[in-house]
Structures are given as structure tokens and as C-alpha cells.
């Protein structure tokens, strides 16, 4: 025996797993693309939809027949054509029956077929269906006339069409959606009449471009109506096959109860779930994502859709509606992706490509149908010619049949004999049937089919009347054959037939457009809807804010008593007031170094006597976070590049940034300044390079240095640099921005001596002059210094305070210990400074103690004194009580506005702040220690 092993003769081909995976995946992908997910450009149907309609046609479930159970239809489709799950088939059939999904429903359903709220349809054993008339007459018409190709079904037991002979471009009219492997399609529905007009325009002029077609087909027409805003997305989709169409609900306003206005939604965008839309609106109202909505109701019924959104009586309805468009499905987009099978291959198609493919397909269908009808007409004419020959030669034919021994012999005799054509010859020539023509001698030989028809002819057909019927039918058939031959012989006539059939479908099934096309941009900023109006913004000490129209303060005549600026509790008071425009941006700086930004129109509206709303309801503040500084800014953000903002913290650090760093502030805020553990932000002021910064401490020190001594920081995550060197247990309480004035020591001392003498002069005495106190400095220089004079108010926690000319605070280097600001020693008890800031003599002060005592006094009554003095008593505090807060109220402008509409706030410009504020850091004001971002040392710490 041989030692060689037996040879295996099986055909084994080694294949790498990568190659096998690649081939298998490609086969799967192509199967999904061609046989499942993408529609055919010709009839606009996927295989499952095509099989459902064809099975209903074959099963006799026509529009003029009774409804049949959906389960039976699904069973027919699954058993013969579509070997997939019954749920998939039923879902596809349900969608074709939904008038809110299909612009032209193809299935006539009876029962629960779902709703716009996302309710599922009833089970297939409960619902009934049949073909819609348009599907029977326009999609399936002529399918039995060899108009389309057929293929074997999945088990090769029957045939199914590869495409339906659609009479209208269903891909455009009903749209399509599907996700394949690596590609997807999403075609919007359109109006039948407009689509057919575009097809006719293409038939009339095949060279027409997309722009010309859009004159007839301006855009989608969704079954749910609503609006399409803007034309750019439509143009992109029609030219390139891809674009984004913005859909918006149709709304109107109605008066509601309690002087409210209601927004009523009557149409929603296509494919929007109404119930989820209402839930989304409710969520936004609950989470304060949208302000101004007080009630929400869904009043939809069988008569139509109706969702009522009631707005607050003070709300801007246009703004609320714009926010609804931005944050809810009231406005959504339809991503057009006109991908379809064209010639069996997936292809991105423009509007012209889709119409051209459909028209070419209809040419083919009409050609095949005409050829089929010509063949059938010729077959019938062939029989009628034989009968006409027999009638024309009736006696010879009867004699031949009588003499024949059998039917077969009679048939052979009829075929063998050449019969005179006589009057039938012209008709035979028109029929022009190949192989069956009149001979040159005027005779005609019958075919076996004609001979059989003659032998099957009943005797009553030989009467004169019946002979006329045969002749008449033959003439009609000949006329039809002439028409068919003319259509097949002339493309112009074929295209005319195509056009006529399109117009017929339009006249029978077209209805008015439902979706309104609107010009303009789809996105509109809330600010564009807000009218410009002067507002008085009021902030209370406990963090309540509101805005009131300035006109509300102008309602009184001159000489009135004025009106309350805010309804407050005993422990609260008006802390800040400023007049600005509704479009003015305001920065809100918090105690933990965050900044928030709101336009004035986003602040809550109120009346002059109302309290307002707390900041915690407007801004995402943490539990221990309070708003300490409100800063109105110029509306033109381009000017912020030339402006700076200076920060000061309780630990003595300062930082200067460009104001443009705070242009973009998100809704959840932005870090304004990094704070160390236990540090807090005490002041934020806008400044220029011509200003000085004055830092005041609780220990009675003050340091003044040029703003330019602090470099401009490029980031916001720094703790800054040292502004003042603090003593033990000392802290910064305020920062003032002063005009920088170049003055010598002699000029400063001389001016202070003159200013002291001037203030001691009584009204009965002659005005004091520089020469009266022996000042040799020119009077012009003294007058210049007097014009630029600024006053610094300092208040201690025991209620004593004083005014000091800013000239007494000489300019030094940043980071020093500073100079004395106030004498705090009293009876051996060390007091603290609670406020130190610049004021005008016409301002008023509000002093508050920790015991709830409050006093309001004018600044001009306070004594002017030197730096290292104690001042005068401003508020008599009880034992154990101390002043905790001092606010500057420059409200003379507001009072003037209340008395006279032509004076007051407008005199100095409504966009400028009429109130400045310094909230004293007392150490026990409820803010507590705030944790900053640790891990980084302060820059330039000296």
C-alpha cells in the first residue's frame, strides 16, 4: 500500500475573514438599500408599500368594495410577497392611511389608525381597510397591460411588480423617509396640483432649470399645514438635493380672562407629536425656561387642533411666542435629503432630476401600454376581418361548410381558399398586421384563428343588423389602431397623452395648498420684538429686583408728593436705582466671583409700589450666593473694547480686565474673578486709564493709586495682584474710581486750606477768596481744582461719618499699607469703617443697623473734615448695635422725573446710572466664607 494519505477531492477555496466580512456586509448593505429602505424615484414607494398596494389590488380590496380586516390584508402581503414581520407590514399600511402623515393617503382605513398625539393604532384584528381611490386609479391603473416588469416573489410561486405604473410623482407628493446603511432619505410631501404643474412645465420645456420649476412648485406642502419660514433651505434642497426647511406652527392671539392674551396654536409642524409638544412647553414653564405663561390647555377635538397658551397680562406676547419657537417643537426643521433609487442605484437627486426621471418613466409606461393595446386591438381586428370576409362571401362560405365532412375539413377549406377582400381591403391595409395583408389580386387568406371564429359564429350573427355591428366594431378598432400607431410613431403625440393624463389627475384629486410659505429669516431675536422704553430698575437690600416704566413716575403734576419706589419689609430698603433703556445690558456680580448678564427687558416688570422678584428666581445662584453689584453698560458692545473693569476683593487683591471679556456671558453665569478660600468680591467698577482707584479698609486705612498700575489681565481665572497691604484682621470694604488729577503738594495743601475756609464762611459773610487765606497760587488753578473736586464719604459702625476732599488722598504706589482714612479710637474701643465711597453733595444716604434701625439723610448736611478725623454723628445707635450698611441714593433725578416729564432723569441721559452703591462688608452680613478656585498663588503678590 502507498504511504500517501488519500486525496480530498472537495472544492475548497480559502478565503480571508476580512474579505468574507467585506463581501457579506456589502451584500447586506445593498439588500437594505435596494430592497427595504429607499424608495424608487419612479413610483416613490419602498418594496413593502408597493407590495401592500399590489396585494390589495389582487385581493379585490378596491375603493368601491367593502372594507376588509387589516389582518387579512397583512396576511396576504406576508404570505405572498413580503416575508417579514406582520408588525412591520401593518405599520407601513397604517402610515399610508394617516391623513396627518400622507399628503395624499393611499389606503382608506376604518377604525383607530393612530393620532397626532402619538397614540398607536388599534390591533390589526380590529381595524379595516381598502384601497384609496387615488391609489387604485392613479398608482395601479394599467398594471395589467404590460406597463411594468414583473419578478418572481420570494418563493417563486407567483409574480410581483418591480414598480407600479404611477400616474403622478408620488415621491414628491407623499414624500418618503428611510434609513439605509450609510445613507438615508427624507423627502417632504408636496401639493399634487403644484407638482403636476411643474411636470407639465418640464414636458413643455425639457430645458427648464430648477428656478423655473420653482415658479410652479414653490415649496413643500405638509399634510398638517403650518408655515415654512424662509426660502433658502428650499432652494438648497431643490438645487442640490439636500437642505433644511424651517417649519413653524400656525398661531394667532385671542383675548383671555383677567386681561390676559392667549396664544392659540391651530396647526403644528409636520411629524410633531402634539402631546409631547404640550409636555415640553409645560416643562419649560415649570423650570422657568420661558417666562410669562400662566396657563396651558389642549382643547383639540374632532373639529381640529387647538392648543391654548395663556400669557401673563404684563408679558410681551411676541417675546413669549419667540421663546416657544426657539425652545419647543412649535418650530422645527425638516432635513431634506432627496435620495432615491434611480435605475436601481441610490442617487442624490435635484427637483429637476426627480421630475425628469418620472416623466421618462411615464413615457416608457405609455409606450408599453400603447404597444400592448395595439397588439390587443390588432388581435380583435384580426378576428373581425375574418368575420367580415365571411359575411362578404356568405354563400360560398356556407356552401363550403355544408359540403365539409368534419369541422377540421371545413377549417382547412376556409384556410386554403383565397377569398375576395372587396370592401374589407382598405381596413386590412389600415390594420397593417404583419403576415396578414391583401394579395395583389385582391384576395385574402384566412388564418386558423379567423377560420375557427367563423366556424364558431352563431347563425343570428348573420342577420343584417349583426353584420352591421361587426362592420361598426371593426371600424372602431381600426380608428383605435390608427391612434395607437400615431402615438407610437410620434413622440410629440406621446408627450401630449402624458400631459393630458397628468392634467386629468390634477383636476380629479388636487386640493388647495395647506402650508403657507413665508419670507424672512426663521430665527428672530427676542430683542427685536421689544419696544424701546426708558425703565427705572430698582434693587432692594435683600435682593429683590424689578423694572418700572419711567412714565409711571411721570404721572404726577409738578408739586405732587411723589410716590413709593418699592413696597419693602421693615428690614429691607431700596438699595440701588438706575434709569436705562429696555435694551441696556446689565452685569450682575455675585459674592462668590460670578457674573451674570441680563438685558433690562428680561427683568420682572412691576408697579412703583410692588416689591419685585428675588434674584434667586432669575439667576442660577447658589444657596450662599448674593448679588452685590449691578452694573448697567453701554448697549453698543463694540465700545467695550476701550473700557476696563476693575475688581476688588476683601483680601485686598485687585484685577483689571477689558470690559469686552464679558460680552459673552452664558445663562449659567461666568467666572468673573477667582477667589481664594474665605475671600469675597466687594466691588466692581468700570474705569478708564485716566482714573485712580481708592481702596478703603475696615481698619481705617485707604490707598489711592493709578488704574494703570494694574496691568490688563487676559484671563478671568486669576486672583489678581495686591492692591493694599492689609493689617491683621483688616479687610477691604469698598473701592471708588476717582478722576486722576495731577496736583503738587503745595497746590493740594493750599487748596485744602482754601476749601476749609470757604466751608466755614456763613451765608451772611462775603465769599471767601484764595487771597483771603494767603494762597499765592493763581485763582484760575484754584478754580480748576474746585471744578474737579470729589468728595469721599466715610462712615464708621458707631454711626459717625464725615466728608473728605479726594485731594487729601494722595496718589501712592499700589500694594502699600495706605494712609489714615478715619480716626476709629473712641473711649478705648476700636471701631470699624463700614463704608467709604465718593458722593455728590446732592445725594442722599441710607444707613441701616443690625438692629433694624434705618435713617435717610442728605449728604450736604454732613461735615467736611480731614482724613484722620472722626467726623460727626450721622445715626445714634443703641448700645450693642452697629451700622452694617450704607447706600448712596442719587434719587434727585427720579424725583425730578416724577414732578416734571421734561426734566429730571432725561436731563442727564437715561442710559447713565443715577444710583451708585457700596454694600459694606461687615463680616456678619449673611454671605459667609466663599470658596474660590484653590491651587494658584495670586499674581504679583507683594
What is the rounded Rg? 47 Å
Identify the CATH class of the largest domain. Answer: Mainly Beta
- Approximately how much beta-strand content do the residues carry? 15-25%
**What is the domain total for the residues?**
4
Could you tell me how far the N terminus lies from the C terminus, measured between alpha carbons in angstroms?
103 Å
Mean pLDDT: 82
Low-confidence segments, given as residue ranges, are 554-567, 892-942
Largest sheet: 5 strands, mixed
Structural class by sheet pairing and helices: alpha+beta
Number of helices: 22
Please identify which CATH superfamily of the largest domain we are dealing with: DNA gyrase/topoisomerase IV, subunit A, C-terminal
What is the 3D form?
rod-shaped
The CATH architecture of the largest domain would be 6 Propeller
Q: Based on DSSP secondary structure assignment, what is the total number of beta strands?
A: 45
Description:
This protein has 942 residues and is of the alpha+beta class. The chain folds into four domains: 25-198, Topoisomerase II, domain 5; 250-329, Gyrase A, domain 2, CATH 3.30.1360.40; 367-507, Topoisomerase, domain 3; 530-741 and 788-908, DNA gyrase/topoisomerase IV, subunit A, C-terminal (Neuraminidase, 6 Propeller). Helices cover 29% and strands 23% of the residues. It has 22 helices and 45 strands. A hairpin with a 3-residue loop joins strand 20 and strand 21. The protein is rod-shaped.
Structure summary:
This protein is of the alpha+beta class.
